[in-house]
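PROTEIN DESIGN WORKSHEET
SECTION A - STRUCTURE
LENGTH: 467
TOKENS:
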């Protein structure tokens, strides 16, 4: 179908199009005038997503997500908020509402659930574009009732928002409180175990005591080294044999030195007497006896000193054994102290771990306790609803314009439907399309002349003839 055919059909069926248009417009006007007037009250709230949480002092990351505003809209349109509106407006105790509920449900179900469903049907919630403002609208035949319900939805939404925030905090606070009691008991047990261990082993300052005992061990080791050196020296001197006369203890001994001088003098005197008096002279014999006595004394003194080396070696060995035993005892004591220190360290770590766990849980308990008592919310009323003056529906002008458009569409559709039922040949193209033959010529249709037009032409012709 081309444009010419379309226009020809409309030209032929224009009366049907006009009648359909007029019928649609008239029906729309009648219905708009008959329908009861309804008023729409609107309130708006602001959701602050950038302010920090008053308890933790930081902005919650979930409030900045794109789905946060959609979640708030779902909360407003939830049954929980609607049921709270029923309670706020006291519909559940209204005799008229109860009677309507009984007639509609025969007493089945709950009144607040039934009334909440009715309220939600006429509720409209829309977020503003590129802002955090949410508009809450309610439509009713009474403007005052519409404003009251809109404001009640706002109040119920704010209260529900607070409950949704506080309820989990209460559960967390209860759970953290129970955990805090258990952790406190663990801390007290760990502290008691540490104190009992310290009292049992007399531990006051184990690190200082360990340092003192380590110093004692080092001192004993130094003494052992000295005694070992002395014993080794005494053993070497004892084994010196004929070379013992050259030992410092013998050479530097004043008694031995004096005896050696006396022996040297006596030997010189003996040689002198041997030369003067002879070896058989009584003076020579007496001098020889004195020299023998001096040598015996010198040998005795030397033997006395060398025998002291043996005694020193024996004493040194005894002292060395004693020091070794003392060192072994001190080592065992140090090992015991280190073991005690390790045990105390483990117990202290248990106490520290229990203390940290208890402090962390106590901090969360205090925080959740504050959150469970919070009455603050990030939602504020921007514009409360007021009873509207003008009705929001029906909109006669808008309905009329829509009816004109729909009437035109229905009229055109009716014309084409009539054309499909009762089709006519309205142009040369229609004929050629139906017969599938080429058009050879066109005979113009004579125009019909009306009676008045024909009488006028006849009179005009007769007048021209008489002249």
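SECTION B - SEQUENCE
RESIDUE ASSIGNMENT:
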């Amino acid at each position: 179908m081309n444009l010419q055919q379309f226009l020809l059909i409309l030209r032929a069926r224009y009366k049907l199009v006009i009648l359909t248009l007029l019928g649609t417009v008239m029906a729309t006007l009648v219905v708009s005038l008959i329908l009861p007037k309804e008023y729409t009250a609107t309130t708006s709230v602001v959701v602050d997503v950038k302010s920090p949480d008053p308890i933790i002092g930081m902005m919650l990351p979930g409030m900045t997500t794109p789905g946060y505003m959609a979640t708030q809209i779902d909360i407003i349109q939830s049954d929980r908020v609607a049921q709270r509106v029923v309670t706020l407006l006291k519909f559940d105790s209204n005799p008229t509402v109860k009677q309507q509920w009984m007639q509609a449900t025969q007493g089945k179900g709950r009144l607040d659930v039934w009334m909440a469903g009715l309220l939600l049907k006429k509720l409209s919630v829309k977020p503003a574009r590129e802002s955090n403002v949410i508009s809450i609208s309610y439509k009713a035949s009474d403007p005052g009732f519409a404003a009251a319900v809109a404001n009640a939805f706002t109040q119920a939404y704010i209260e529900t928002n607070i409950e949704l925030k506080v309820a989990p905090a209460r559960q967390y606070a209860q759970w953290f409180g129970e955990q805090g009691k258990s952790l406190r008991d663990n801390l007290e047990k760990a502290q008691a175990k540490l104190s009992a261990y310290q009292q049992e082993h007399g531990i006051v300052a184990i690190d200082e005591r360990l340092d003192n005992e380590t110093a004692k061990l080092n001192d004993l080791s130094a003494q052992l080294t000295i005694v070992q050196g002395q014993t080794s020296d005494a053993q070497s001197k004892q084994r010196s044999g004929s070379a013992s006369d050259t030992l410092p203890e013998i050479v530097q001994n004043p008694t031995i030195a004096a005896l050696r001088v006396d022996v040297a003098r006596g030997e010189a005197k003996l040689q002198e007497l041997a030369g003067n008096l002879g070896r058989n002279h009584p003076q020579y014999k007496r001098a020889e006896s004195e020299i023998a006595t001096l040598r015996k004394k010198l040998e005795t003194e030397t033997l006395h000193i060398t025998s002291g080396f043996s005694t020193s070696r024996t004493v040194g060995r005894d002292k060395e054994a004693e020091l070794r035993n003392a060192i072994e005892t001190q080592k065992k004591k140090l090992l015991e102290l280190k073991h005690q220190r390790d045990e105390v360290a483990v117990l202290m770590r248990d106490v520290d771990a229990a203390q940290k766990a208890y402090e962390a849980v106590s901090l969360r308990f205090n925080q959740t306790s504050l959150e469970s008592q919070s009455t603050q919310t990030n939602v504020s009323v921007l514009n409360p609803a007021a009873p509207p003056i003008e009705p929001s529906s029906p909109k006669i002008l808008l309905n009329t314009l829509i009816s004109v458009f729909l009437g035109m569409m229905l009229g055109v559709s009716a014309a084409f439907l009539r054309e499909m039922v009762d089709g006519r040949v309205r142009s040369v193209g229609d004929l050629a399309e139906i017969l599938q033959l080429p058009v050879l010529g066109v005979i113009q249709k004579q125009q019909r002349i009306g009676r008045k037009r024909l009488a006028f032409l006849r009179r005009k012709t007769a007048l021209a003839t008489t002249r």
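SECTION C - NOTES
The mean pLDDT is 78.
The first strand starts at residue 39 and ends at 47.
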